[in-house]
Amino acid sequence: MRLVTGSVWIRLAASSKLLFPIFILALAACWFSGCSIEQTTITSNAFHNLTAHYNGYYYAREKAREVEKTILKTLDDDPAQVLRLFPALDTVKAKSYKKDTEEIIKMASISIQRHPNSKWVDDNYVMVGLARLYACDFQNAILTFKYVNTKSPSYETRHTALLYLLRTFTEQGDFDRAEEVFRFLDKEKLISKQNAKKLYLEKAYFYQIRNDYDNMVQNLSKADSLLSRVDRKGRIYFIIGQVYQKLGFNSEAYNFYRKCLATNPDYEIDFYARLNMAQVARLEDKRDVRLVRKQFDKMLTDSKNLEFKDKIYFEWGEFERKQGNLAEAISNYKYAAHSGKSKRIQGNAYLRIGQLQFDSLKKYSLAKLYYDSAVGALPKDFENYEAIKKRQKILGEFAGYTETIALNDSLLTLASFDSLTLRKRLDSVFAARDKKLAALKKKRKKAESVTSESGNQNNSFFNNAPSSATSDWYFGNSALVATGQSEFQRIWGGVVLEDNWRRSNKAAAAPEATLASLRTAEDPAKNNSAPTTIEKSEEKLDEVGKLIAQLPTTEKQKEEALAAIEKAYFKLGDLFYFQLDEKQNAAASYEKLLSRFPLSDFRPEALYKLHLIHRDTDSEKAATYANQLTETYPTSTFAKILVNPNYLKETSVAAEKQKLIYKEAYRYFQQDNLRQAQEKISQALQVGETGFTPQLELLKVLITGKTEDVTRYQFELESFIKRYPAEPTKAYAEQLLAASKALLEKLEKAKGIRYSANVEGTHYFVTLYTTSDRITNTVVDALEKFNETQWAKLKLTTSNLALNDEKLVTMVVEFPDRETALSYYDKFLAQLSIAKPFSNYKFYNFVITKDNFQTFYRTKALDEYLTFFNRNYQKQNQ
Q1: In 190, 472, 705, 812, which residue has its Cα 20 to 30 A from 294's Cα atom?
Q2: CB-based contacts of 379: which residues, under 8 Å, 6+ apart?
Q3: What pTM was estimated for this model as a whole?
């Protein structure tokens, strides 16, 4: 038996050289027989799955990863704000990688077409949707992801498609539908860890876009345990720390900054994490404060942080500000403004100095200068930029009022002195000023001499070795340069770099400078020689004489100075109340007015405004002001308003009440609280017809523009123009109407809605209805019966097409010309439209040329075509 078996193996071995090629050919034949898409054999399925995976899906996925890297490079991080979880998508950036997204769609689509029975079809559809998302083709991306969600048998793939759908809605700004998606995913039990992590991150991004930092950080914390290194854990931990810091949870912020550093993140993230840790560190005593200062100093001396010096100085300034060391804070802010190239940090530093000068130091003229510089440097997307710009614009007026008060108070004080005391006081003021100027001049000369010596040494032809004097050269010493810049800022403020910059009135208004500003221009010297001691004395006497001549010495002059102060306090309160919306500062100004001028003509109005300011916060104080008003000035308009709310309806001052109500209504309008605004307008209009009524009506129209469609908005504007032809507001209404029409035209052009005016040739009949009515079969049966009985010669056919998620189109094709199509349309209206199902549901019926139907289906512009149809078919048919 063993011999027989052995002989068999010998024969097989001998013939193996012939059998192996035959085996390989047979195997290949079996394999390639599975290439047909109709085959469902094991070899066919294996072939299609393998090819669809590694020929289509794999390369599409790799190309998608390349696009994602390109998008990541567009991140413009501002560590002063909470970093974005994901880069924003926009059409401008999408153009830079358009070829890549097209390639993804192409590879995935070929795989779908050639291997329709493979298990990778759904995954390839996801790649198509992802490419459309990155290309900002949001509508088609939504359709693709919805298709995968409804067709895929795989939970994993459906969840992936829904996650991308969530991102698409978020990028599109459709937050309601985005929330529906993640609420659905929250209920799913079979979601994988990978998709659960993505869900938490997508929800966090959704809440970040909506500025809901509480929910944002909750979802990021849930994702923490699921994160891997490829998710850039360090960046996410840094963002969590930023959010906790923003919400005021410093200990949690500190812990996440430490976790960020433990992941060895990118250098910039590492740097800012260490910087922010200094901000949120718990300072138990002075030793901790000194330790933080040493850390800042160490960071400044580190050569790796050279490009971050401006940021370090700024954060050091923030630290000192929180400790209450305003002088050190301002000094560091000034260094920050001149130590780097970042306009954002420079502008923020100027802004901080302006805020300190305004709120804490009460140096309003300097605050105005720093706000000017801040607005010039800050980017327009800076947080609260419009509020900053608003304050900067009114600070000029504000500084005028405060300077009026300070100047007239100083003049009245000086006028109260006797001549001998006055002379001594003025001499001391001018002596202090001269001493200060001499010190500045000496400092400038010293800097110039150092510059000259350094220049001589460095320009020497024979002196090729590095000079030790280089560090003493003014422009070679960064500390000297920064000191000079700070001194320049102190004297001149943050002036713009321009010709003749000294001619604009921007000098800081210190008390001495305020007195010196009263001088007229000095006579120019007759020669270039330095003035003699006698000339200096005469010059000083001339300054003193001119100042004394302007003092309010007579009763009339004193009354005028006091009246100017009185009016300035009142205007200052109005500015705080109405323009800056700072009620506490407004109350302080009104109260100062009442204490200094108890018999002021502004007193009734000031009492009334104080009542309004405290009405919501301190009812007892508001009642006190109301009682003072009604008891002291019972016949005043403002007292009558308090006693009798209907008083304004019965008097000619009804417009004044309307203005007060209008202020509240406009505030609600700015906050998008449109219902409250509408109620306030209705309340104001009930007062009666006044000269202020057109303003109320126009605001009502503006609310209509936000709550109704554009057609209604334009109609209301046209009605307003006809109703108030002589009002000044008519011109503004005309501008709004013109702008609205121009915008509509622009949007129409952007959509490409241009129906051809040529209505001859082949036509279709179209009936359009709502998908949810589920009447497609009934509609088709009715039309086909109608075609067979009355239009059999034309051999018409009926077909259905989805216009969008909500509308379906049933078409009857084709009609040879316009007249035949209109004849069909007329008979349809006369016979079918009055019968079921057409009489029971909402339908849109029309005829359309073949070319115009292509435009209609592409743009989905139903309203526009109905207008076109009415203009080009209905009127002519009549």
Answers
A1: 472
A2: 343, 344, 347, 385
A3: 0.44
